[in-house]
């Protein structure tokens, strides 16, 4: 009996030793575990049978704008049954890092690549390889402007002219704004300002075009204003009235894009007689307006120096969000980065199926103090 007990104890001890050894093999120093994790992340995982693999590369991985785009891309991937990988450099200025990421993506032989290029010129060689490998590339946000390789088949991005028109429609529909413009006379016309950081940037220029043209059309539908609206200030947007002027839309472009010049231009606009509204066409223009109005306190709706001026903006940023929450800005329009990601993946899937694809307008979203906290809006508003 004692012999049997000894044998059982020996077997039990052997199992314990094996178990301890096995557990010891699984434990690695933290540095080694991190090394293995990074290696695993760098290794492409084969797609399941019949599942398409798409890689999305942004200009800056941690940027809130692109994080919202990734969420849209992930939703599209789930809806369409594809495997998605997201990537991007640690900053938009890190061009070489993005070039390496695009080259690595091509080596993984995905079914498609979705790309917002930091520097299109630096990616020409890589895009040429994607084209040669038969990997379709879809742009999103700014995409890859002027791509000479033919690799980029379409881009999901904001139609900035339509977005500027969106701002104009919201402003024109405001009862308080309509009340002011309907009081305008030939002797005392009202003025609506539009501040552009510059006249050469395609996106900003298109926003101004959409804003001034749409606002003119919207105003001329009101009684007594048919033909009485002019657009002036810059030859590029000059449109004379066809009747005695009652409303002047005046575009201002500072001499340089420095914040000091933008702020100075904003101050000069606020000194205009009978100014009733102002559109700031991008984040830098918005910052100039806020600086010119004592951190927007002059826009306070009850006590502010410019309390009767309705200010509308574009983009987001903390200072603009605060001005909207406080009611100092009437509202603003943000690009829909979520839809950029969603529509880009949708285009990529279509391209992998050899379907024809074309550029898609991903739209813009109006926000004010009433909806700024809504989940579908808040995701688009970066600090």
From TrEMBL:
It is found in: Cell envelope. Residues 54-354 form the Periplasmic binding protein domain. InterPro entries: Peripla_BP_I, SBP_2_dom. The keyword Signal applies. Keywords: Signal. Coiled coil: none annotated. One of its GO terms (cellular component) is cell envelope. It comes from the Bacteria. Residues 1-21 form the signal peptide. GO terms for molecular function: carbohydrate binding. Pfam families: Peripla_BP_4 (PF13407). Belongs to the bacterial solute-binding protein 2 family. This is Periplasmic binding protein domain-containing protein.
């Amino acid at each position: 009996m004692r012999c049997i007990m000894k044998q059982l104890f020996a077997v039990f001890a052997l199992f314990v030793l094996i178990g301890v050894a096995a557990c010891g093999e699984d434990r690695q120093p933290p540095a080694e575990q991190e090394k293995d994790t990074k290696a695993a992340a760098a290794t492409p995982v084969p797609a399941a049978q019949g599942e398409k693999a798409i890689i999305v590369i942004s200009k800056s991985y941690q940027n809130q704008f692109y994080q919202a785009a990734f969420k849209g891309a992930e939703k599209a991937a789930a809806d369409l049954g594809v495997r998605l990988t997201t990537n991007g450099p640690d900053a938009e200025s890190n061009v070489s890092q993005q070039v390496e990421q695009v080259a690595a993506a091509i080596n993984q032989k995905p079914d498609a690549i979705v790309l917002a290029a930091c520097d299109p010129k630096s990616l020409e060689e890589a895009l040429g390889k994607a084209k040669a490998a038969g990997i379709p590339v879809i742009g999103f946000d700014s995409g890859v402007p002027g791509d000479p390789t033919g690799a980029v088949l379409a881009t999901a991005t904001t139609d900035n002219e339509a977005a500027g028109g969106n701002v104009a429609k919201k402003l024109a529909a405001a009862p308080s704004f309509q009340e002011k413009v309907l009081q305008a006379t030939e002797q005392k016309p009202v003025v609506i300002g539009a501040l552009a950081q510059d006249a050469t940037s395609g996106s900003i220029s298109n926003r101004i075009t959409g804003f001034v043209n749409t606002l003119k059309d919207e105003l001329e539908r009101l009684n007594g204003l048919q033909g009485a609206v002019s657009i002036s200030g810059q030859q590029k947007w000059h449109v004379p009235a066809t009747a005695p002027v009652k409303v002047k839309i005046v575009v201002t472009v500072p001499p340089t894009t420095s914040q000091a010049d933008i702020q100075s231009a904003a101050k000069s606009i606020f000194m205009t007689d009978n100014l009733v509204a102002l559109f700031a066409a991008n984040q830098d223009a918005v910052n100039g307006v806020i600086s010119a109005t004592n951190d927007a306190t002059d826009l306070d709706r009850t006590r502010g120096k410019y309390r009767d001026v309705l200010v509308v903006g574009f983009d987001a940023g903390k200072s603009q969000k605060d001005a909207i929450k406080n009611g100092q800005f009437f509202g603003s329009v943000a690009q829909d980065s979520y839809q950029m990601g969603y529509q880009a993946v949708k285009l990529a899937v279509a391209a992998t199926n050899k379907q024809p694809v074309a550029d898609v307008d991903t739209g813009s979203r109006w926000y004010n103090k009433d909806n700024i906290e809504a989940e579908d809006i808040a995701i688009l508003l970066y600090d």
